Amino acid sequence: MAPPTPRLVIPIDLKKKPWQQKLPLHNRWHPEIPPVTEIKTGEMFRIEMVDWTAGSIQDNNSAIDVKTVDLSTVHYLSGPIRVVDTDGNPAEPGDLLAVEICNLGPLPGDEWGFTAIFDRENGGGFLTDHFPRATKAIWYFEGIYAYSPHIPGVRFPGLIHPGIIGTAPSKELLNIWNERERKLEETGPRSLKLCEVLHSRPLANLPSTKGCILGKIQDGTPEWIRIANEAARTIPGRENGGNCDIKNLSRGSKIYLPVFVEGANLSTGDMHFSQGDGEVSFCGAIEMSGFLELKCEIIRNGMKEYLTPMGPTSLHVNPIFEIGPMEPRFSEWLVFEGISVDESGQQHYLDASVAYKRAVLNAIDYLSKFGYSKEQVYLLLSCCPCEGRISGIVDAPNAVATLAIPTAIFDQMG
Amino acid sequence: MAPPTPRLVIPIDLKKKPWQQKLPLHNRWHPEIPPVTEIKTGEMFRIEMVDWTAGSIQDNNSAIDVKTVDLSTVHYLSGPIRVVDTDGNPAEPGDLLAVEICNLGPLPGDEWGFTAIFDRENGGGFLTDHFPRATKAIWYFEGIYAYSPHIPGVRFPGLIHPGIIGTAPSKELLNIWNERERKLEETGPRSLKLCEVLHSRPLANLPSTKGCILGKIQDGTPEWIRIANEAARTIPGRENGGNCDIKNLSRGSKIYLPVFVEGANLSTGDMHFSQGDGEVSFCGAIEMSGFLELKCEIIRNGMKEYLTPMGPTSLHVNPIFEIGPMEPRFSEWLVFEGISVDESGQQHYLDASVAYKRAVLNAIDYLSKFGYSKEQVYLLLSCCPCEGRISGIVDAPNAVATLAIPTAIFDQMG
Amino acid sequence: MAPPTPRLVIPIDLKKKPWQQKLPLHNRWHPEIPPVTEIKTGEMFRIEMVDWTAGSIQDNNSAIDVKTVDLSTVHYLSGPIRVVDTDGNPAEPGDLLAVEICNLGPLPGDEWGFTAIFDRENGGGFLTDHFPRATKAIWYFEGIYAYSPHIPGVRFPGLIHPGIIGTAPSKELLNIWNERERKLEETGPRSLKLCEVLHSRPLANLPSTKGCILGKIQDGTPEWIRIANEAARTIPGRENGGNCDIKNLSRGSKIYLPVFVEGANLSTGDMHFSQGDGEVSFCGAIEMSGFLELKCEIIRNGMKEYLTPMGPTSLHVNPIFEIGPMEPRFSEWLVFEGISVDESGQQHYLDASVAYKRAVLNAIDYLSKFGYSKEQVYLLLSCCPCEGRISGIVDAPNAVATLAIPTAIFDQMG
Amino acid sequence: MAPPTPRLVIPIDLKKKPWQQKLPLHNRWHPEIPPVTEIKTGEMFRIEMVDWTAGSIQDNNSAIDVKTVDLSTVHYLSGPIRVVDTDGNPAEPGDLLAVEICNLGPLPGDEWGFTAIFDRENGGGFLTDHFPRATKAIWYFEGIYAYSPHIPGVRFPGLIHPGIIGTAPSKELLNIWNERERKLEETGPRSLKLCEVLHSRPLANLPSTKGCILGKIQDGTPEWIRIANEAARTIPGRENGGNCDIKNLSRGSKIYLPVFVEGANLSTGDMHFSQGDGEVSFCGAIEMSGFLELKCEIIRNGMKEYLTPMGPTSLHVNPIFEIGPMEPRFSEWLVFEGISVDESGQQHYLDASVAYKRAVLNAIDYLSKFGYSKEQVYLLLSCCPCEGRISGIVDAPNAVATLAIPTAIFDQMG
């Protein structure tokens, strides 16, 4: 007998607002956000999701929505999903949750996406000191291809992937996150010249009740207030996976996530039609709504067996990924290089971030010689299937980073 | 009529010491190191080269040579080569030198290489705080494949490439280098906690007469002393290309180097049979002697036309690369992730170097569960065709870096 | 504004029989089968289709349905579709119809397929003299992967494609087809020893009223009888495209079809989840229902401009294809060879069909050493992404054909 | 200790004629041609070889040499090589000889090759009825690339491979070959209309003393006369491997050859810089001199264990191949199709040779619209990395064959 069609466990109705969805969304990581559904290992299930801003960015030519978007409410995630085995026993802390991405795509009837440069005063991005103003490109999909009226002459196949997929942190892990990020905010590199040169963005995004959405937990209740003050923002990737933005995490990939709470409490969102390594403009992928068809297995005790803590506690681990076999073939690549000397001429020590910044700037300058504005290229390099490599990280004082661009994106005009 | 066999312009006799070679080698960047030969645009020519240590590391089981190697003498480069066009007019500052890699390989009769972890007290490496002791793996070549008696069960095809290829800096550019690196040495991140955690290595390698070799310029003469005190070390990649360690720069690739002095004064060396992105153990590629067959073109005024300065002067540029079409097909990749939280649990701000370090450590820990020592895996990840990616560089405070390893390297046992 | 969701021009309701569908299907090629719908160039439209047998083969363990299937009714096609340009002018004979495959897949809720060996007495196949009995394998889909309870230990990603896509023939072309195929039936290789050795299958499938379905033309009417007696079977690929079974014709591909009648009258069907080159067992792909999202352009006069007739009339042409960029990466291939000596030891002259037969038989014999029955391997080689190559076609008397199998299909067990 | 440089067991001096070489060449298959050298399993050894005509075709613009070449003397092979295991025991009939291609390339100083259309009266080719006149293209190599002054605008990377590699047949196998090929000559398809349409070439090439070279066996002696009258020509691939012309058999590939005589008596030759599937113009690869570096293993009794006879005796087997992982990446392919209807409009029954002929003719016609002569395209499709596929072999009466051409060959101008 054929297996049943993937069970739709989290439906999205794009005509409704996020808070009107049948199953409530959430935008924070916390162990006490209750699961909205339950799945069994071995079954294939379908999750639908809004785009990371839940419709705040519109399909039009104005970037006013980008400039004013309320970033306290992102990312809107679908879940949490409680995972149990075929005997009904939930995933337990210390297990590994293996999640296979069987299928994924845009939501039918919503085949478009956006890439944006955030305003320096509202979010910023990797090159916010060079490109401080809000800008937007809309992309339309033709099957595997995306094209944009805002960046003509470009068309490329997408490697669709979820930007965010992760399990709920335990209370202990959450405390670690909040403590280390608060410390950065207080004492961190804001005081350092090199950071001022690089960025004027917030150093971290600490818990706040503003914009907080906690799924089934009613807004404004004492419980909500307590949890909102503890719950981690979804901006950075962390030990639980989360916003890892791995551009090749498409069909056929498998993710081994550590389990920190009973039931694993899997959440996902931030679907990307395509992303370049680094997602440099921050809202840099082709952001869209979408669906995922997943299958889970529980590897009992797998976290202890396969992951080695990299820090003071046993919780300092990272997921492992197997990349799927389907991807576009590209024949020719144009490669730009950067070294860890910044735009003021200052030498940094083996700093791959500075080196990558310079590689991206070099690519932008070069490509803008062919009729594009620099903003267009910045948007393009954020979302096209370009590869950002750490080529050398040992030859003091210069890290060497490279950005490789498949030239076929420029001539695949249907 | 068939074109002639590539003209051998720089021969190497491996039975001789570096200073006994027919054409003298050099190990510094300086505009006044005289060319040892001249080539014309359009002709194919052959350059031979010693390994980067000129034979200091032996094909045996002891790492004592690694521990005691004199790093003041590296890298031994072949060149400089003066480039003139078919009318005999030399490349000029402001031109671009397009160098095509037509062919390359190990020197016949010398089909072996080495990968080493440098001692913390002599060179160190990306993970020197974890792996402080000198270690060595010898690799033997069987055509496209390398295998090592020191890392059994592994065999992979190499993407042979020169670690170093570059043009001579002008005096002005050299001054910029020396000034910014000196400043780093004096006031740089040595004072910062984050750097102490990461490394105990020298911040930069400033000019020094010790170990200096300047080609045709006689050791110990006043000219030699003056130049040696100005000439830049070859360790880092810089505006002139140099030690860029781009692992895919193999057959069929093309490099567009800026020209800073009359004749371009092209030098190359540091041949690698294979390298992983990052070359993490520092002496991390499969280091070997070798040959290059090259063809050059001069793009007049191309530096000004195609490269955009990224800094206070018009000299702050980087080369551009086109990657060749030949590479091994790999089907399945295992991907490890790191975020910019260091091993002490401290949060860093969008630091791709810290994130990549954690990704590499995660990979080492995982693979060491399958019967390898951690040192073996560290060596392996330095030289096998693994990809180091900057996956996310915008989601404050965590940069996300990934290390992707082709699983086929573990089962291609002949 | 985002382009609208692809317009569904031919819907299929899988709960209904073929003759109950909203728009009638057809299973013959004829210029007078009336279009069921019309599309404009530039618009994206969606076609749904039944599997080629319209549900005759069931998802179960018995091959009785394969043994008794009525082959006079295949292939059930969706269409014809009349194509007009944005001014409303139809495609004209002599034009080229460029069809881009934007998206395609199984019909939601019907994610399974079948591969079958036809009985020697009912359809047969490439190796019917070796495998005369009806056999069946059912495949289930998990996103990009297919697996079969009937061929355990195998799992591979599919390259979904339509087996059949073509335009309607003109009356003149239809006459050419019928005449040449009738001639083959009458005087053809049936008399030749070599063919008797190879096959006991019908030489051609001439027009017949039995099982004939002509869309909007009512069964049994005089018009139906006339057309049924003229209309070509859909079994072979011909000048109009049709059953070309090109396994890489997946997402992002583009097909340039000659236009023989006003409006082009495009039809398509016979969706495959995956197919091996040659589709050797005849019902050899993973056959399924499915959908296509297409976009058409008309290249006016393109047939005359780009296609060169290869025969006595200007109609002897073939379509041209551009293959899309998305396909699974495979690293290792096992290759079996055949030469044009048949199993009786008889030498044939540069006969690629005989050579390929022997290559397939060699592969079956080899793989059956690893625990599979030969029927299982025959089914597998029909539908897995293996490549059938004409390696040498000039070295008299032996053609050399090869069958290359990606070894990863044997170990990608989820 | 590093393994020694591959031992040169068969040297070639290109300044000498074939009969002046240090070790004599041979151009026939026979069990009694004595080995010229011996190698041990596990050692890497080097074989040099002349081009298949031993210098008969010159690097110039005239095709007179092609027109008049003496085809009774081809192919000049290096060998036979006796293979023994590390205990000195030779390979035995019934064993498999595993040959790994570690490295290969043109002979230094001879970096050029040729592709030719043979004259209808002297060799012919797949399309000799369309292109009856001798034509020649010379190719020059720039590292991995080949370009030709006779086919401007084209440049592509080569997948270098030996066209011929095989073991000596036993007397019994030789008798089988001679008998079946003689039978074809006497009673074969020459009588059939379809063959006359296709070809006017010899049906087989039976043993003859003319041009025969038997290595160490002195010309004209009674032994030579006897053997020459029995020895098989090297034109077709057969059970012993031989002229299999598998274009992907490059670096890192492995060939499992059946052993028919004591010592295996391995011979090889006919080096190709690049070949298209089918090698359609007969002298169709880029033919060159070259070297191979090989490593052999003996799999005792492997022929019986892994190969299944496909005919009346246990000798009716074929080699198995593993294809190496290094190949050029191509992104975009243009695909031409053919069906088994010939140029006269006659229908053939599932004849892949006819279908492939039509696909090649379609490609030639299409590409000749872009400024090439048809002869140029015919030469190009013979030697560029195009793929010839058997797409459908079951849809009576039309086999469908396709020819896929990577479009990058047209724009990779250095």
From TrEMBL, chains A, B, C, D:
Alphabetical list of Pfam families matching this protein: FmdA_AmdA (PF03069)
Protein source organism: Solanum pennellii
Gene that encodes the chain: LOC107011137
Gene3D superfamilies attached to this UniProt entry: Acetamidase/Formamidase-like domains
Superkingdom of source: Eukaryota
Name this protein carries in UniProt: Uncharacterized protein LOC107011137 isoform X4
PANTHER family on file: FORMAMIDASE C869.04-RELATED (PTHR31891)
